[in-house]
Amino acid sequence: MAEVKKLKRPELDTGEKLYLLALAKGAMVTLKHAFKSVTGKARGADSLNSSGLGITMQYPEQKWDDQLPEHYRGAPALVTDEQDRERCVSCQLCEFICPPKAIKITPGEIPQDDPWAKVEKRPKEFDIDMIRCIYCGMCEEVCPEQAIYLRKDYAITGTSREEMVHNKQKLYEIGGKRVGLVNKWNELK
User: Fold this and answer.
1) Contact, 178 vs 80, CB < 8 A?
2) Of 54, 97, 124, 187, which has the fewest Cβ atoms less than 10 A away?
């Protein structure tokens, strides 16, 4: 059996018990930053085009759009190909992999008289609850047809929960067209 050692905590003096020194240090840091922001010398004030007092960005007049990193992941959207055909084949991989379960897909059949009937199905309904979405990018990574992309949009607002559920039509509207090879239209596939 291992030996147990009892450690004795060091005794605190009266100043340490009252935390006076810690409070004074915190107040000095706060006053230093306040003085720099009033004089217009705050760190980052120039790069953010701030109002001059501090580095507070004046949203919505000023936005992060030019300063977003290349790898930024925003809101998901569905895209079409050059001929306005749906890329999504309702494989439901994005629905299954979504950690917060924000995606709901109802598959639908493509009529036999459709010129693109080679494809088995397309989504009848495709909903993404933007309140639940955590912008993780897993839906984009798992999509075999490159039908869902994360945009660089961070300002998604609505006045009700119903407005925050983006349906198929809205997702295609905000996603737009994506140029490039689409596996499901490939004749060799």
Assistant:
1) yes
2) 187
How far is 64 from 72, CA to CA, in rounded Å? Answer: 11
The number of beta carbons lying within 10 Å of the beta carbon of residue 187 is: 5
> Residue 22 has what pLDDT?
87
Annotated binding-site residue numbers: 88, 91, 94, 98, 133, 136, 139, 143
Mean pLDDT of 78-94: 88
Extract the annotated binding site for [4Fe-4S] cluster: 88, 91, 94, 98, 133, 136, 139, 143
Q: How confident is the model at residue 60 (pLDDT cuts 50, 70, 90)?
A: confident
Task: Map out the domains of the chain with their CATH numbers.
Answer: 16-64 (no CATH), 76-183 (3.30.70.3270)
